[in-house]
Structures are given as structure tokens and as C-alpha cells.
Design brief:
Blueprint: H1 2-15, H2 21-33, E1 49-51, E2 54-56, E3 60-62, H3 75-78, E4 83-89, E5 102-105, E6 110-113, H4 122-132, E7 139-143, H5 154-165, E8 171-175, H6 190-199, E9 206-210, H7 216-228, E10 233-236, E11 253-256, H8 260-274, E12 278-281, H9 287-295, E13 300-303, H10 305-310, H11 313-323
Parallel strand pairs: 3-4, 3-13, 4-7, 7-8, 8-9, 9-10, 10-12, 12-13
Antiparallel strand pairs: 1-2, 5-6, 6-11
The structure holds flavin mononucleotide.
Flavin mononucleotide binds next to strand 4, strand 6, strand 11 and helix 10.
Length: 328
């Protein structure tokens, strides 16, 4: 299946829209939105797992950013995902940065993006989720800051989105780590993060998504704040502004294979230092990468870029690799 995808399907997808990566993405999403939904999630023996008080049919999820507005939600469990994170969504609908803003680096199995939270806004997502009814797998909702909102009013911006979407998410991801919204990563600083998390207290699990570019000291401080504020878990990591072994002039966040080593390091650090549940994400392009994430201390795994290069069989491959091991 993976060979079929890589030899037959991927070349066609990559040529869509004259090779423009975002056009291919949009058309694929539209096609997926029309897929008939399977009734049961993919959950082979040994795959299901309870984390954050939530039962997951399997521990492999779709990472944020692939389906920001939840347009193809029923399709993801049919592809084998055990949970889905929609968003990042913002209080105000916004177009994101100018195109082109999504670049494939096939020789590295990587992507550089500077999308800038293009999304239809929190209210539109709430409307769609309300019409759709419950999903067959747990749903995470990733929240970010609207570009028009100044940094010193960020708390109110997140709180408004959170209230609008509260009824629909099984967990909420607080995205303070995208490199593509000016100033956003400053919300990872102790004072600002503490204020934000204090304002978002809830009955449902809150997770903080971190950048791979923080030093151990900065990460340690961030984890202190998470623990002080009763955060339920950490998602590690977002894309990197570093270019490990990759030569590209495009600005933005790098994802995929070159991110794997650093993401794994951060997962290990966060799990060890905080003891919090971790969702490991970054560079999972092979089932062995998912296994390494769990070995590094992650409770769940997500992927995005690997799906583009390896196709949906990667998802089931990861689930099978993890289910065949005891304790996962
Ligand atoms: C095109 C693109 C858009 C993304 N958008 C978001 C986003 O809106 N919110 C977010 O938290 N992460 C976003 N991400 C980051 C992914 O969720 C993930 O953390 C990162 O890509 C590393 O995983 P991967 O190597 O499996 O892709 C985006 C990634 C890509 C490639």
C-alpha cells in the first residue's frame, strides 16, 4: 500500500495545481471530505489506550494544521487515526500569509510552511462541529491568537475562542509555538504563559504545544508554569525555525524527517522533567519513529508531514507497531 501510494498516488497529488503544494492540499482535503465514513475506528487488539482521562481507540493522531477548519473530519478515522486535532483556529477568521506559503522538500521528506493560521474562525468551526455531531474518535481543538489582536490582549482572544468551542473538544491545545504569527512564541515566556493558562482553567484537559527551538532552561521554566497551572499535558513539538541538514531559502517552520531527532529530544526532556503526559509529534515518517516517540516517554503520537510522503498506510503501520508492544 505504501509503495502503491508512493509510486502511483503521490506523483499525481504532487502535480495537482501545477505542482503548487497548497492547491494539492486543498484538493485532497475536498476529496477526503467526500469519502464515506467507516462506522468503527481502527482499533486492533492492544491499540486502545486511556490518556488524559480519555479513551483513545489507538494512540496515533492527526496533528494540527492539516484540517484547520474541520472540513474532512469524518475521513480521518477512516484513514486509521485514533484521534484528530483540528485548528489552529483563532477568534477572528483570517486569510493567513500571502501565497505561496507551503513548500515541499521531497529529498528530505520535509515541508516548510508559513501559513500564518489561515482559518475561518472559532465560530465557523463551532457551527460545523455542531452540525456534524459527535466524531468516532476523540477530538482535540488547537487554539491560537488572531493576527489582528495585539499580544497584550492575547488572553482575551484565546478565552473567547475557548468559550465558543468548549462544548466540542475532548481536549484543547494551546498553541503558543507557531513560528508564523509575529510575537506568538513570546507567549511561551513565564509571565505571559502563566496569565494565559490562569484564564483558561477548565474541566477539560488543556495541553500546551511547545516549539522545538527552546533551550532546556526555557523549556524547564515553561514546564514549571504548566505544573503550577495544572495543565494536563504537553504536545511536543511544533515546527522548527532551524534548518538541520536542509538547505532552503524559504522562511517558515520546518516539519518532517529533519525534525525527528530534535522532537524526540524534547519529548524525552518534557516527559522526564514534568512527568506530564506528552503527545509526541515531529518527523514520524516510519512506524519505527512512532515507537521511538513512545520509548522517549510520549503517551500518544501525532503526524502530519509523514502522511504527505508515505500516505495513509503509515498511520495503520504506526498503530500496528505500537499495538504489538506491551504497555502501549
Ligand atoms: C502546513 C502545516 C501547517 C501547520 N499548521 C499548524 C497549526 O495550525 N497549528 C499547530 O499547532 N501546528 C501546525 N503545524 C505543525 C504540526 O502540527 C506538527 O507539529 C509539525 O508539522 C511536526 O510534525 P510532522 O513532522 O509530523 O509534520 C503545521 C504543520 C504543517 C506542515
Amino acid at each position: 500500500m505504501s509503495v502503491l501510494y508512493e509510486r502511483a498516488v503521490r506523483p499525481v497529488l504532487f502535480r495537482l495545481g501545477g505542482g503548487d503544494a497548497e492547491t494539492a492540499h486543498e484538493r485532497t482535503l475536498r476529496a477526503l471530505a467526500r469519502l464515506p465514513a467507516f462506522r468503527r475506528p481502527y482499533s486492533p487488539s492492544g491499540a486502545s489506550k486511556t490518556v488524559l482521562g480519555i479513551r483513545f481507540p489507538n494512540p496515533v493522531g492527526l496533528a494540527a494544521g492539516m484540517d484547520k477548519d474541520g472540513r474532512a473530519l469524518p475521513a480521518w478515522p477512516s484513514l486509521g487515526f485514533g484521534f484528530v486535532e483540528v485548528g489552529t483556529v483563532t477568534r477572528h477568521a483570517q486569510p493567513g500569509n500571502d501565497r505561496p506559503r507551503l513548500f515541499r522538500l521531497p529529498q528530505h521528506e520535509a515541508i516548510v510552511n508559513r501559513m500564518g493560521f489561515n482559518n475561518a474562525g472559532a465560530e465557523a468551526l463551532a457551527g460545523r462541529l455542531g452540525r456534524l455531531g459527535p466524531l468516532r474518535v476523540p477530538l482535540g481543538i488547537s487554539l491560537g491568537k488572531s493576527k489582528i489582536t495585539p499580544l497584550d490582549q492575547a488572553v482575551e482572544d484565546y478565552v473567547r475562542s475557548f468559550r465558543i468551542l468548549y462544548a466540542f473538544g475532548d481536549y484543547f491545545a494551546i498553541n503558543v509555538s507557531s513560528p508564523n504569527t509575529p510575537g506568538l512564541r513570546e507567549l511561551q515566556d513565564r509571565g505571559r504563559l502563566s496569565e494565559l493558562l490562569g484564564a483558561l482553567r477548565s474541566e477539560k484537559p488543556l495541553l500546551v504545544k511547545v516549539a522545538p527551538d527552546l533551550t532546556d532552561a526555557a523549556l524547564g521554566e515553561l514546564l514549571d508554569v504548566c505544573l503550577e497551572r495544572g495543565v494536563a499535558g504537553v504536545i511536543a513539538t511544533n515546527t522548527t525555525i532551524e534548518r538541520p541538514g536542509v538547505a532552503t531559502a524559504e522562511a517558515g517552520g520546518l516539519s518532517g524527517r529533519p525534525l525527528a531527532a530534535r522532537a524526540l529530544e524534547v519529548v524525552r526532556f518534557v516527559a522526564k522533567e514534568s512527568g506530564l503526559p506528552v503527545i509526541g509529534v515531529g518527523g514520524v515518517t516510519h512506524p519505527g519513529d512512532a515507537v521511538r516517540m513512545i520509548d522517549a516517554g510520549a503517551s500518544l503520537v501525532q503526524l502530519y508531514t509523514g502522511l504527505i510522503y508515505r500516505g495513509p498506510s503509515l498511520v495503520r503501520g504506526c498503530v500496528r507497531a505500537l499495538s504489538s508492544r506491551s504497555g502501549t
